[in-house]
Amino acid sequence: MAPAPSKKTATGDATEETAAKTTRATKATKTTTAEDTATADKPKRTRKTTAKATTKRKTGGRRKKTEDEFDLELDDVLETPDADEEPEEDEATVAKKEEKKAAEAVAAKGSGFVLTASDDDDAPAQRVVTPGATADPVKDYLKQIGKVSLLNAQQEVDLAMRIEAGLYAEHKLAENPDMDKDLKKAMRWVIHDGKRAKNHLLEANLRLVVSLAKRYTGRGMLFLDLIQEGNLGLIRAVEKFDYSKGFKFSTYATWWIRQAITRAMADQARTIRIPVHMVEVINKLARVQRQMLQDLGREPTPEELGKELDMTPEKVIEVQKYGREPISLHTPLGEDGDSEFGDLIEDSEAVVPADAVSFTLLQEQLHSVLDTLSEREAGVVAMRFGMTDGQPKTLDEIGKVYGVTRERIRQIESKTMSKLRHPSRSQVLRDYLD
What we know:
The chain has helices at 7-67, 69-79, 91-109, 137-145, 153-175, 181-204, 206-213, 223-240, 249-268, 276-296, 302-309, 313-322, 353-370, 375-384, 395-402, 406-420, 423-430, and strands spanning 332-333, 339-340. The protein is mainly alpha-helical. Among the domains are: 145-272, Four Helix Bundle (Hemerythrin (Met), subunit A) (Up-down Bundle); 274-324, Orthogonal Bundle (Arc Repressor Mutant, subunit A), CATH 1.10.10.10; 355-430, Winged helix-like DNA-binding domain superfamily/Winged helix DNA-binding domain (Arc Repressor Mutant, subunit A). Mean pLDDT is 76; it is low at 1-16, 25-87 and 109-129. InterPro entries: RNA_pol_sigma-70_dom, RNA_pol_sigma70, RNA_pol_sigma70_r1_2, RNA_pol_sigma70_r2, RNA_pol_sigma70_r3, RNA_pol_sigma70_r4, RNA_pol_sigma_r2, RNA_pol_sigma_r3/r4-like.
């Protein structure tokens, strides 16, 4: 009879079996967890892979842009002259934007009125608020030109070289318009770059024009007009500047700006234009006169000025007359300004009241004397001396009126004049003789 298995052995087997099941379950759980983790990480890896692919495509795009950069930029330059220029908008859009900005500015300040296109035409005019604008145009201009920084000597040379290259490219393009297409594109790009360099050199030296124009204020032209004329001289200086000479641009441009301003003053500042060479003589005489006034302590005589300027005293007096400024007849006089300068100047063509009365009395006396003559004699004398319509008639014209010859009219005139010379008739008219 075989021995019965012990209780301890059965329990151990059960424990081992349970442990094996637990181990298998744990492995299955780990496997499931690993699969889930892999499944969860798969989208992340997919997103990373997609991002890398996108980065590669972008990088490839950038490389492609780098290769075609010159052609694209050149096409943009040829289509749009200024790369910094924003696309133009129609007038209606611009007007709406300006009205909106003005309304926002007013709302921020809490005061003021804004006119819009929808306002009624009969409504009272209101002040238009423009953000950033002031009532002083000079201040606005100075603020605008102050945004461009000044240039050093090397920058001036670089800009001048670009300008020269642009002019040379323009010359070559005009000489050979049938050149290669790519070369023509390059030439046009160089021309455009030269124009940009010219504008940069101009804008950086606008403050030089202002500083020189200040010296000529109060001489018959507005300050802004002087600045504009000086800007024309600055443009001429940019076109003529030779960087190879080694001078600074401001030193060279000063002479062109001064010349433009002085020529404009000679042409525009005076009511009566004086030739430029005479204006130079007038200015020289004025300088010498001021200097001699300081040295002598008194006004110099024409002889002293003529000796200093190598001119005759008569010529000095004549030049001084040319230099006088005309005076307006409407210049107010007195403290109250109730009278004008023109009120004190005699009108040589105006009729003096006493002379008008004397002329009226003379006409009355003449008619009274003519009444003592016959109708034909009075008519012949009146027409002969223009007493009827102010136009003297010839003998032929009077003869046609009366139907007689000119000789007969001459005889009537001679006889009538003899009668008028008689003291009984001429005495009353002698008082009117000068």
